[in-house]
Amino acid sequence: MTAQMDRASSIDIASLIQHDRIHGSLYTDPAIFDLEMTALFENAWVFVGHDSEIPEKGDYLTRRIGRQPVIVARGKDEVVRVLLNRCTHRANMLCRADSGNAALFRCPYHGWTYANDGRLQGVPFREGYDQEMAEMRSELGMAQAHQVEIYGGFIFANLYGNAGSFDDYIGRAKGPIDRLLSLSPEGRIELRGGWMKHRSAANWKIVNESQVDGYHPLFTHESVYKAIMPAKVDYASDELLVATRDLGGGHNEVDYSREYQAQDAEFIWFKRTPREKMAKYVAAMEAAVGADETHKRFVDGPPHTFIWPNLFLAEMHVIMVEPVAANESIQYTAPIHIAGGEEINARILRNAEGAMGPAGFLIADDGEMGERNQAGLAAKQPEWALLSRGFSSEVQEDKGLTSYDRTSETTQRAMWVHYKELMTEDQA
Ligand code: FES
Ligand SMILES: [Fe+2]
């Protein structure tokens, strides 16, 4: 056992998470980061990609589950598998491209080849091996995640098959995924615009917390409100019917739908774009679900929902967080394409450039806050970060624990309650 693991096993995680405060070391301690990668990623359900990223047989993409590299591949039998990106000979990484199409993965070291379903296909100079190896051959395919499930095209994997059922894991997060798909006349979305990646010197949980923080926008994103979004909603108003909600299982959201319904106006969430500018899309929706239902969906808009532990449905974008180290993470963002909505898709792309790109308004601001958050944590006093905002405003509803104070920290507490459960399972 390494000294760091030894120390990790002696950390009393439960004592570091109080109902109203979080200990700063949870964002900075490398030993805690190690525990998280094991407990929250490698032994848990995590998001690994969207099936529209690998539509054809042989398509693949590379990702990581915790710190383990994986290849998400569609085999020639159409099945999506999550393969460990490691040669079974002497462990070379098989694939270094972000994505591609391949019938075979060939190890660059000694040339072993694997089919895109992971089976070992070829071993050069095989006469150098004895009979025992020949008999083992069928066991020398690439290792695979034990469980892979797809919901609404979103692919989730559990590496070791020990994290309980997918239904229990996804829980109430199905509703927001359905809400997103309901904006498509075909009931589908696609991620085919590629991912932008932002590496930042911030803990992965800091990145997640800010996605669903309803308290910061007026300050962190002041320039957005001044420059480009004055028409959307009066965000300074105390009267807004915006909910922050703990959906259970670490999932949580900021839900604007009641405010939009109160105004009964379409596309408030999309710069109030008039429907005439997307006439074909509107017609396709009305043909698919009728005029009334179309109006309702255009009013309600997309979800603003975090799906534990690494997926954020950011309205018309998807965000995925990849932890790198206690003080480093990569934030991936992708624009959503609505199947059957080319006119809205063109606008979403422009929106992605304005909001999510390196010169954009939103991610750049949040990235700066994340790094400053991490930098501030280097000061060890006071020891705790507060997370008590909006406690007394919470009510238990069918949808989850809800506060109608949009600045309530209900969303962050939702993550920490679940974090504590998972991180202390073995310590209990
Ligand atoms: S390590 Fe892959 S073929 Fe040797
Ligand atoms: Fe933000």
Topology of this structure?
Layout: H1 3-9, H2 13-16, E1 17-18, E2 21-23, H3 30-42, E3 45-50, E4 59-65, E5 68-74, E6 80-84, E7 99-101, E8 104-106, E9 113-115, E10 120-122, H4 131-136, E11 147-151, E12 154-158, H5 166-170, H6 174-181, E13 189-190, E14 196-200, H7 204-211, H8 217-220, H9 222-227, E15 243-248, E16 251-255, H10 257-263, H11 279-289, H12 291-300, E17 304-307, E18 311-314, E19 317-325, E20 328-335, E21 337-338, H13 342-355, H14 362-377, E22 384-386, E23 394-397, E24 400-403, H15 410-423
Antiparallel strand pairs: 1-2, 2-22, 3-12, 4-5, 4-7, 5-6, 8-9, 9-10, 11-12, 13-21, 14-20, 15-16, 15-24, 16-17, 17-18, 18-19, 19-20, 23-24
Helix pairs in contact: 1-3, 11-12
Bound molecules: FE2/S2 (inorganic) cluster and fe (ii) ion (FE2).
The site of FE2/S2 (inorganic) cluster has 9 residues, from loops.
